[in-house]
């Protein structure tokens, strides 16, 4: 069943079941009442990443207080995707965009990796989670990705599951077409690794090329910025060997 994009969707971390009243946090209450100007009896859609999507009524409980009452499930919880998105952190604005697009493109795990040329090694996990929720709310997504704490490059590579293919976007690749390199990976568990604005260091590139579970791919004949490369990589992977195919 397709998402209803005409209704407001709100993420909640509370369990969802028919008739079980939910007290929204202050920021959600402010948004619904003062920004959207919603009233007693209005309806919204709720999701929590586990219980599917629910139609809920706004129930006023005081002059400036209200609760949310789930009435019926509109969409069941789908099977979660299995696509790990690994990235070197960028400057704040570009990283906000990149995280939102990763959620929209079906990432199941977001793994920041601190590389040698990384521009922003300190991350705001609350801001990261806010971007995840916003993208899911706007795009009808029910399964939210897991956000993991940053790892340094060496620790990340040490902990990687060798049974999961890691697709490494290499701007120095000697070809332009990623499709012949992706085709042999069809049916495997997948992850993609996007480097920083300054690219991977030569030592990091050499190390990645030596790993048996790593596949290096190009992204065409043009040099792309990291946030653009992220969208391009996820698009070609999902179209060629992911859940679009």
Protein model, in words:
The chain is an alpha/beta fold. The protein folds into two domains: 9-75, Ribosomal Protein L25, Chain P (Beta Barrel); 83-240, SPOUT methyltransferase, trefoil knot domain (Alpha/beta knot, 3-Layer(aba) Sandwich), CATH 3.40.1280.10. It has seven helices and eleven strands. Strands 5, 6, 7, 8, 9, 10 and 11 form a seven-stranded parallel beta sheet that branches. It has a four-stranded mixed beta sheet with strand order 1-2-3-4. The relative contact order is 0.15.
Question: Which features would summarize this protein structure in a list?
Answer:
245 residues, alpha/beta, Ribosomal Protein L25, Chain P, Alpha/beta knot, 2 domains, seven-stranded parallel β-sheet, four-stranded mixed β-sheet, 24% strand
* String of helices and strands: EHEEEEHEHEEHEHEHEH
Number of domains: 2
CATH topology call of the largest domain: Alpha/beta knot
- Shape summary: elongated
What's the number of extended β-strand segments? Answer: 11
Q: Kindly state the percentage of residues in helix.
A: 25-40%
Termini separation comes to 19 Å
Based on secondary structure, the structural category is alpha/beta
Number of helices: 7
Identify the CATH class of the largest domain: Alpha Beta
CATH architectural grouping of the largest domain: 3-Layer(aba) Sandwich
Strand count, sense and barrel status of the largest sheet are: 7 strands, parallel
**Strand fraction:** 15-25%
Mean pLDDT: 91
CATH superfamily annotation of the largest domain? SPOUT methyltransferase, trefoil knot domain
Low-confidence stretches: none
Radius of gyration: 20 Å
């Amino acid at each position: 069943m397709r998402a209803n994009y005409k209704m407001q969707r709100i993420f909640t971390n509370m369990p969802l079941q028919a008739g079980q009243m939910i007290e929204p946090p202050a920021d959600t209450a402010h948004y619904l009442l003062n920004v959207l100007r919603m009233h007693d009896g209005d309806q919204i859609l709720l999701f929590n990443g586990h219980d599917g999507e629910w139609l809920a009524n706004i129930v006023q409980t005081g002059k400036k207080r209200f609760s949310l009452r789930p009435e019926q499930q509109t969409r069941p919880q789908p099977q979660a995707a299995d696509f790990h998105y690994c990235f070197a952190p960028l400057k704040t604005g570009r990283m906000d965009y990149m995280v939102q697009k990763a959620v929209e493109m079906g990432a199941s795990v977001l793994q920041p990796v601190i590389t040698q040329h990384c521009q922003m090694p300190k991350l705001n996990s609350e801001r990261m989670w806010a971007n995840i929720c916003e993208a899911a709310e706007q795009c009808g997504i029910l399964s939210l990705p897991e956000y993991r704490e940053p790892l340094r490059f060496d620790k990340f590579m040490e902990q990687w599951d060798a049974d999961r293919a890691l697709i490494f976007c290499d701007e120095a690749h000697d070809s332009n077409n990623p499709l012949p390199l992706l085709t042999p990976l069809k049916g495997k568990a997948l992850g993609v690794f996007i480097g920083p604005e300054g690219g991977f260091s030569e030592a990091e590139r050499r190390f990645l090329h030596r790993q048996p579970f790593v596949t290096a791919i190009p992204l065409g004949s043009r040099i792309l910025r990291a946030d653009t490369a992220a969208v391009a990589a996820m698009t070609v992977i999902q179209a060629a060997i992911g859940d679009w195919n």
